[in-house]
Amino acid sequence: MTFELVLTGIIGLLLILALFWRPPKLERYVWAMVVAYGAMGVWALRYGLLDGTEPAWLEIWKPTILYWTLALILFVSPFLGWGFPVKAILGTFFVLSHRTWNMINWIFTGVLTLFGAINILVYRYNPGNWDGFKYSFMINLMFLILLRFNFAWGMVVSRIIIHAYKQYKARFP
Q1: Pick from 44, 54, 164, 170: CA 20 to 30 A from residue 154's CA?
Q2: In angstroms, rounded to a whole number, what is the distance separating the alpha carbons of residues 108 and 74?
Q3: How far apart are CA 172 and CA 156, in angstroms?
Q4: What is the 3-state secondary structure (H, E, C) of 125-147?
Q5: Percentage, residues of the chain above pLDDT 90
Q6: What was the pLDDT predicted at 115?
Q7: By CB neighbour count within 10 A (0-12 exposed, 13-18 middle, 19+ buried), where does 116 fall?
């Protein structure tokens, strides 16, 4: 347990040093997400690595807290003038109007709020299947992340193909 704690501390310290060495220009909503999930990581270290006395209710509420924290950041950021955090989730390579980003932000807020509520309802009415349900929701979130990368690579590859085709057509008319 001590080794894991020291290793986690060293990795965390290196990440903090890298961040302050050359601070990236990040939007305020990204900083809000970093702080929120950093606090959750400290919380997990406190209960998981240090003493291992995680209360039983915490295991059930962890996914809900994760979903609702992100939903809260998505909800509050536009009102504070920070922009739309959904841009960090989907990527900034989509050129969309302000109204469209607002709509997508509201949809993601609703979906994440619903995920958290469904997590609690499934545990309340069917605790035997809750563990598998929790992991299936994590897979759904991973699917969203991978979908983002697929869109990015699809855009890059399509631009390369179009550029190569135009050069080919210019050489051999």
Answers
A1: 170
A2: 8
A3: 24
A4: HCHHHHHHHHHHHHHHHHHHHHH
A5: 3
A6: 84
A7: buried
